[in-house]
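Interim report, section 4.2 (structural modelling).
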Amino acid sequence: MITPRTAAGTLELLPREQRVFQHMFDIIRRGYEKFGFNQIETPVFEMRDVLLTKSGGETEKQVYFVQSTGGIQQGHEADMALRFDLTVPLARYVAEHERDLAFPFRRYQMQRVYRGERAQRGRFREFYQCDIDVIGKDKLSPAYDAEIPAIIVQIFEELKVGDFTIHFSNRKILRGLLAGYGVEDEEKQKLILREIDKLDKIGADKVHEAMVSLGLTNIQAQQLLSLITSQGTKDEIVELLRVLDQKPNEVFAQGLAEVTQVVETLRAMGVPEKRTRLNLSIARGLDYYTGTVYETLLDAHPEFGSVCSGGRYDDLAGHYTKSNLPGVGISIGLTRLFDQLNANGLLPPAPATVQILVAQLDPALAPHYLALATELRSAGFTVEAYLEPSKLDKQIKYADKAGIPVVLLLGGDEQAKGTVVVKDMAQKTQSDVARGDLAATLRGILGA
Amino acid sequence: MITPRTAAGTLELLPREQRVFQHMFDIIRRGYEKFGFNQIETPVFEMRDVLLTKSGGETEKQVYFVQSTGGIQQGHEADMALRFDLTVPLARYVAEHERDLAFPFRRYQMQRVYRGERAQRGRFREFYQCDIDVIGKDKLSPAYDAEIPAIIVQIFEELKVGDFTIHFSNRKILRGLLAGYGVEDEEKQKLILREIDKLDKIGADKVHEAMVSLGLTNIQAQQLLSLITSQGTKDEIVELLRVLDQKPNEVFAQGLAEVTQVVETLRAMGVPEKRTRLNLSIARGLDYYTGTVYETLLDAHPEFGSVCSGGRYDDLAGHYTKSNLPGVGISIGLTRLFDQLNANGLLPPAPATVQILVAQLDPALAPHYLALATELRSAGFTVEAYLEPSKLDKQIKYADKAGIPVVLLLGGDEQAKGTVVVKDMAQKTQSDVARGDLAATLRGILGA
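Predicted structure of the assembly:
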């Protein structure tokens, strides 16, 4: 006998939880589609050289390699590996199918990704990412940078996971400021941005220290820290940047112009002001981002960290094509979000998958139960017919355990009268309903 | 520069095809839910010993093993492998979560599975399976064997892939007949059933030959072949079996009783007669099945082979639990079906994902375009706003290439008049529509 168990670092759900997960998944999908994004799906594995364009990096340490029995027998090195995000597959997809795609290419992709993380609570080796990206050819207006948070706001409002704020900034602002302070070297700028990204975790003193060790003076470090921790409305922060007492600088000016356009476009799209915040301390650790960056926090649970992050990048697929493909995108880490909400008792309610159980009261009437179930399915309900001759008690318990909100009972008497007994599992009530009124009564109970 | 390419044996789709695939996927999912099935998802990999309960089998030759960078460096053997079907994960799931599940447990699962097939047209190394199963505890009424084809009939009718027939039989009938012929050995019975399963491929002569070499007399082989190729309605075939000139036999009698119940239950559920056929030559190659077996053929394309198969099994999870868990299930191989339909120009039509493009006619009016898009999304449309300042010509071409059926044009004149120009891409017509009539006009064009 083999002990049935799942691999460490995976999230497998019971049907009731799976229903909530799928409900959230569907809301995200519909939200992406509403804004005109097209779905793509890519294979779970990519060719090794395609996936690992930069070998020896941090990523490679976490990659899962895939090999067939035949390959192992022949002593070959694995030539495929599981994707570790959806961005590399997107880059490969766009480069491979470039001629068949319409640009700006708007795609959504909601699939699982794989990372050989150390096994610990909240770290997953298999998890869903729900990504959208808009990819331009040679250019892409900063207006798209505003559309992304507008989409996320709609989705998170519909998810009903409490108040949330999308914090955004533009890496060009900090890079321009650093250049103005005399830190012209791009690599050094990136290192400083990476320290700023840790502000929440390590605190202002440590960041100040790191900045100084990377070449800023004490005063500059202080000024910068004070600027990036400024509180205020988006307009106030934009104004603050506009009047900054510093030499004009091309990169800074560009960043400011882009941020201003994002603020204006968000307004034109009718995004509620409170849902987005211009937060200059948002830097994102990934060097990959070149302009706008986003992080999303649940207001009541900042300890969850960012539940939806992304940004603008200059060139998506430089490893695969000579075409210049700038883009902007964002990703919801649904598995992690679901797990955090679940652990804190914050999962949103989800509609029942199975609405109605037709019980088997009298085996002799079985054909009538089947006909009743068929009739109700045609009326749009999801219906299970209990096909096993079994005690009523056991059938009611089954409905309760399975979370089915309505049980229908039909005996000889009801059949003769043309009625059905409707049992409301939540209210623990039951009533005799004429067949002609059945659908309306059920809709009332189910709120459908 | 690395050549962007997908691994052999995978099916990656362009957005237009993906939309059709997803449309079919959604119909299947809704169909399963309508009949009260609960979704589950399992990790893509299972522990090696859990997945490969019978080592050295045919299956193991096709398994993909998964190993992390760390594991490879330490010279470990891979301890995980990709699932090759959804049945083994289901067995593991039910055994692992037995106490938390309500029985009969009705689950659907639609995920990808992996097999190291030889790379050739129509053979996939990664493909979707869309499974439903009902799992009983200790017992499961044969009425469930009738529900399965009833569900598949609804789904395939909605898929609009032409006429189809679900062929079904019961392995007990053939096994009972063989026992009556003196072939009592179960292993030998299974071997003969496996030959019968090949009837369509190798022809009656070869099957006859094989039967004789496995112990039947010439006459017996002839009788059996003549019986299993009998044409007739379900009732006629049942009648034929009832009056068979043979010693009564427990296994045969059970098979006949079960088949009879399936035929009656199908009728009670209102399944159209022509959609199912009692076909005694259906045996399924897998020894796994113990009673009812199903295969589904597209009437106009028998050369596709069975596009949806399954059956009844006595014990799902004997490797993992002492509980006796009989079940019945079926699987749609969606990737292969989609590929076959596509290759033959038979893909069903799918609704457009993006219904409306709001063009950017005049960059100065950009905020109005965004507001218009937001307004239409609230009215339930899927809307893309073109945010790039760009020639109208190029935007129209973009909509055409992306398959967007309606483009909206809003210039200064229209803005002043309170109208919008609606461009119907399919009809190649356009008209000036008052803002108040816009939603209704769009619904008319989109047939929504």
